[in-house]
Write a structure and sequence with these properties.
Distance between the termini: 51 Å
Largest sheet: none
Number of strands: 0
Shape: rod-shaped
Strand content: under 5%
Radius of gyration: 15 Å
Structural class: mainly alpha
Helix content: 55-70%
Number of helices: 1
């Protein structure tokens, strides 16, 4: 059994963007 290539779920991408935006916000403020 071969494991399929790891595909990032959209939820993880959404969390990454959210964290990035929050970090940017805290850096600006």
């Amino acid at each position: 059994m071969r494991s399929p290539p790891p595909i990032l779920p959209p939820q993880l991408f959404q969390w990454t963007v959210l964290v990035f935006v929050l970090l940017h916000f805290f850096l600006v403020v």
